[in-house]
Amino acid sequence: MPVQDNVNDTTLLISNKPRVKVCRFAVIVLAITLTRLLFGYDRGAMGGASIGWLDNDILTDSQYSELVSLPIFAAVGGCLFAGYLQNKLGRKMAILVSMVLYTTGLTLCVAFNAPSFYLLFIARCISNFSLGMGHVTSLVYLVEVTPAHLRGRVLVANLVVMPFGNSMSGFVNLIISKTVGSTHWRLMLGSGLILCVLQLILLLPTPRSFKWLYTRDKIQESRREADKLFNGLTNDQFRELLDISSKSNPVINEISRAKLNAGTVRRMVTVAVGLIIVGQISGFSAVLYFSIQVGHTSGIGDGTDNTTVFLASEAIFLSNFFGVLISLFVIDKLGRRRLLLISQIGTICSLALIITAISLVDNMGMKDDPWPAVVKPACLVNTCTACVAQPGCGFCSFNTTLGSAGFCIDGGPSVSVAHRCEREGGVYCPSHCHSSSNWFLGISMLLFVVYFSIGLAPIPFVIAAEIFPQHLRDLFTSISISTFYITTALVTLLFGELYPIIGMKYVFVIFGVLSIFGLLFVLLLVPETSAKTPETLHELFEEPWCCHGNGYSRLGASSSIQHEDDEEREEVPNMQSGDISEGSRKRRNVSN
Q1: Roughly how many angstroms between the first and final C-alpha of the chain, as a whole number?
Q2: Are 68 and 211 spatial neighbours (Cβ–Cβ below 8 Å)?
Q3: pLDDT in tens, 418-465
């Protein structure tokens, strides 16, 4: 006897959720999220390789800044191309293509012991192009194959692996530095090829997106792929996974298409793109790419042994990882909006602490020219952080316990000015600032990383991936992720070019001011999205900003969804596979 629907039976409501095949689903999520892990690993490996490039005179400081920032613009092309490729060939094939391209770029990068800047630049452009492709396609794939009650956690898990990749590369950098030396940059970068092989092995048996297949009228194939992921999948559950309204013809997205006017789409794009920008203008990406330089500024290392600097860099990566991991467990309890606000406020407070700490470190600087006509003009700066950022300059520090006095002078093994500093009782610091306030700066940096990671790191990508319905998801997810790479490149370039000129403190002042504007954006324009399905999230953006204030409340959304579900359960007919085929024919008639 068939089971009758009862809207008041909580047990039945829970059991009607599609039940995933846990082990298989976990392996598939791992295979897809390796794309993001590679991005994190690549970013950490670049920081470790910078020491080998700079110490071996393969790159200058200016060339390294350009190498880590300008090729990121190639990722924008990768994001846009992914929107086209995944629509034509499917999500799985697009991920495979991106992996092959990344492997090609990485191999080209490590093929030569002393490559030219232009060769490295081309190789990095290929790698970043592929990373942009993989970033977009992995998000779209996971949104499409994950049921609504698991979507938030799976999307955050896709982002957790990125800082985990940072941390992995940090440990690898440290091991290579201690065993064979920090100048072996090819080992640090080339170790990423192991992850490429692992992803290929896991991707081959991964099923294709059943939603994409359905939009291509491959109904039976779509059902077979869905059955690979879910246990005992009924027609009603399959229809729910496809986001087909049970009160209407099973024509995917026709209702959503009719309701999405230009104003609604514009507000959705504003929130998705705006949140990506808000996350990046805090300067977090610059801190990761320049983690070695940040460690020097914090007074870590003596300029000869890089072990402590690698450890400081690893502390930043681990803080990033644990921050995103925290968000994985609280995102569904607190909601997207509330977690964003906590993260944004904490980030602003941490930036204020960083600025204060750098000011205390710089208090030991002196404006006077210590030895007139001896120190070159480029080194006549009045703070330690600005001094060590200048190529060929170092800080001559006196009374280092108190951190009270010092000045900027010429540096380098063949420069006699540095020896004069030591002869007169000073301590020459070529790349770091020793002060009694270094511990304060280090803690402030870690707080900044943690607060950023719990909300601003994962949630903009979660919202950008989930708010667009199926027929808009490819295009606008590509645009959102493209915005991420554009702002990452600009922020990284800004940091690399400005901190030697104006000092690290004033660069963080700029990030702090921009973050305040970001907080206002979240407060005024970002609604709570956690309680709706991707095909109904457009309802949050149908009214103009002035009419709904801070967005759709979580409780209201939950109540609305429950009410809709109750109505649907009263009217849902029994859908057989023939009904789906009939829906497919109706969809073709509509398009014609």
Answers
A1: 42
A2: no
A3: 677 777 677 777 766 766 667 787 888 889 999 998 988 888 888 887
Note the pTM of the prediction, 2 decimals.
Answer: 0.68
Half-sphere exposure of 463 (CA within 13 A, CB side): 31
Instruction: Kindly indicate the confidence band of residue 194, based on its pLDDT and cuts at 50, 70 and 90.
Output: very high
Distances (CA, A) of 106 to 43, 46, 129, 192: 12, 11, 12, 8
Q: Which two tokens mark 4?
A: 């009758």
pLDDT of residue 589: 46
> Residue 114: pLDDT band by 50, 70, 90 thresholds?
confident
What lies within 8 Å, CB to CB, of 140 at 6+ separation is: 86, 91, 209, 465, 473, 474, 477
C-alpha to C-alpha distance for 575 and 246, rounded to whole angstroms: 9
Look at residue 393 and give its three-state secondary structure.
strand
Query: Which of the residue ranges 149-153, 259-263, 331-335 would you say has the lowest mean pLDDT?
Result: 259-263
* Token pair for 532: 């709706």
Q: Is the pLDDT of residue 193 over 80?
A: yes
Instruction: Give the per-residue SS3 of 288-331.
Output: HHCHHHHHHHCCCCCCCCCHHHHHHHHHHHHHHHHHHHHHHHHH
pLDDT at 237 over 70: yes
Q: By C-alpha distance, which of 388, 453, 505, 488 is closest to 68?
A: 488
Strand, coil or helix: 408: strand
DSSP string computed for 519-565: HHHHHHHPPP-TTS-TTTGGGGGSS-HHHHTT---HHHHHHHHHHHH
Any residues with CB less than 8 A from the CB of 120 and at least 6 apart, and which? 59, 67, 109
Q: How many Cβ atoms from other residues are within 10 Å of residue 23's Cβ? A: 8
Residue 422 tokens read as 């030591």
Bridge partner list, 393: 410
CB 341 within 8 A of CB 523: yes
Q: Which of 576, 574, 575, 565 is nearest to 6 (CA)?
A: 565
Kindly state the tokens that stand for 261.
Answer: 């006017």
- Residue 384 clears pLDDT 90, i.e. is over it: no
| Beta bridge partners of residue 428, listed in sequence order | 396
| C-alpha of 503 from chain center | 26
Residues 545-592: tens digit of each pLDDT: 655 444 444 333 343 334 444 444 333 334 444 444 444 444 444 344
Residue type, 423: R
Cα dist from 218 to 222, 403, 493, 565, whole Å: 6, 71, 46, 28
Cα separation of 475 and 265, whole Å?
12
Nearest to 448 by CA among 539, 352, 551, 362: 352
Cα→Cα distances 353→214, 264, 349, Å: 52, 39, 6
